Give the backbone structure.
Amino acid sequence: MIESLNENYWTQRYENNQVGWDIGHVSTPIKDYIDQLTDNDIKILIPGAGNAYEAEYLWSQGFKNVWVIDLSKTPLQNLRSRIPDFPASQLIHGNFFEHHSQYDLIIEQTFFCALNPIMRTDYVAKMHELLVNGGKLVGLMFKIPLNTTHPPFGGNEERYRSIFSPYFKIEIMEEAYNSIPPRMGNELFVKMVKA
């Protein structure tokens, strides 16, 4: 049985330093993707962002239209302490599925695999809703079967393609060649465009 993955669960994980997903910096595949972006004005969302090193890196590269949402206040406070001038209005303490706005780019980094797998089709539909026409969902997903009772929840390319393809044109879904060493061979880099 999957444990309750509510705000209290995630806050306790941060407070007890049980954050195995937290690598302490922006992940290499996402950094390399960000380094190719040329329009600093695009509106970007990082959902279930945790300590949001991707947001920190984007901010350092001049992207100021970056929004972060997390169920727990703790990682949002951690990001604010690292970047005091990051606007509080762009740090959203709340439920991703209740969020309403429009974005040019959404970055996926450990959020999908943290959700109860029964929520995956809801995740895909919500991503589609939050993106502008032609908007992109870009990031990393685990490509190995992992836990069935607690996060991270794994998956495989075939399954991901079946749930994303009704909503997205999948431009890239392949093993990341530049994962950090502990995750090498276990991550898919994805780039999908709202259909």
Remarks:
- Strands lie at 44-47, 66-70, 91-93, 103-109, 131-142, 168-175, 187-194.
- The two ends are 35 Å apart (CA to CA).
- The helical segments are 7-15, 28-34, 53-60, 73-82, 120-130, 157-164.
